[in-house]
Design brief:
This protein has about 300 residues and is mainly α. It contains 14 helices and no strands. The chain starts with 16 loop residues before the first helix and ends with a helix.
């Protein structure tokens, strides 16, 4: 009986052109909207940074060339603003990552009231920055009627004016209180993903709590800490509401960061050209920090 089987080789069939373009056509609206959302403000900021544009003096128009840049670089508040920006970001990261790691390890243990304390530690993350700044300014750190002042009087200490004598420290406390829940949730998820058999094996080998943290938990939290650092840094570079509500950038320039400096140029001095230069500087600074963090995270992922 003859063999009727047919040997089929690889068949190459070219899809119709409409099928090859379909994915790009479906993605085009969202990609276009994203590009417009990011590129248009950037182009307008660069454009106004080279122009004379003051809201109170509309007659002054035309290109300013590098005049706005020279004005910003000669402003005595620029140096303190950059320094305060880095100090704010650095200290908030130290507090949130350090305390968040300890709380994540604590909440991984089984103790009475753990569910309630988890809810309480997450609550500040849902409070608006303006509201949290008012809570700290009027209810907690007020030198006359604040909770901290009451506690200091209870132990025989004299209350201090936090926003007058330690303004940047006060801002750091407020922002740290807001971002601690994010660090705790992220790090707690990482701690709970740790293999329990490794922990049990380490305990059987006689490892104490400190050795467990140094050799087991801390290496496992490396990627989570890097992610928390990157996300928080991006947002901490733009802290503004807390400063506006509490100190107004003062006393002097002690709490003025780049975001508040741009606000001062744009809305207080109505100098859009100088404010645009500040925005350009903030963009460059944010990209440099993001590049450094991405390189650090890439090394952490390869390790």
């Amino acid at each position: 009986m003859p063999d009727l089987s047919i040997t089929r080789g690889p068949v190459s069939r070219r899809l119709p052109r409409r099928h090859t373009l379909a994915p790009f056509l479906l993605q085009a609206p969202s990609v276009t909207a994203l590009l417009l959302w990011s590129i248009v403000p950037l182009v307008m900021t660069l454009w106004f940074s080279f122009r004379r544009y003051n809201l109170l003096e509309p007659s002054q128009t035309g290109f300013a060339h590098l005049e706005n840049y020279r004005y910003l670089l000669g402003d005595p508040s620029l140096g303190p603003a950059i320094l305060n920006t880095f100090l704010l970001v650095g200290w908030v990261l130290v507090i949130t990552v350090g305390l968040g790691t300890l709380l994540a390890i604590l909440y991984d243990q089984d103790f009475f009231g753990r569910s309630v304390t988890r809810v309480m530690v997450v609550a500040p993350f849902f409070v608006m920055p303006t509201v949290s700044a008012l809570i700290w300014k009027d209810m907690l750190l007020d030198p006359e009627n604040g909770v901290v002042a009451f506690l200091m009087r209870s132990v025989g200490l004299k209350p201090i004016n936090w926003f007058g004598t330690a303004p940047l420290t006060s801002i750091v406390l407020i922002v740290s209180w807001q971002w601690l829940p994010f660090a705790v949730l992220t790090l707690l998820t990482a701690v709970q993903s740790l293999d329990q058999e490794r922990k049990e094996a380490a305990r059987m080998d006689g490892a104490g709590p400190l050795a467990m943290f140094i050799y087991i938990i801390r290496p496992h939290l490396g990627r989570a800490i890097a992610a928390v650092t990157m996300v928080e840094t991006i947002f901490l570079l733009t802290v503004f509401a807390e400063i506006l509500v509490t100190t107004g950038g003062g006393p002097g320039y002690s709490t003025t960061n780049l975001s508040y400096l741009v606000y001062r140029y744009a809305l207080l001095e109505t100098d859009i050209g100088a404010a645009s230069v500040g925005g350009v500087l903030a963009i460059l600074l944010a990209n440099l920090v993001a590049l450094f963090l991405m390189r650090s995270i890439a090394k952490n992922l390869d390790a």
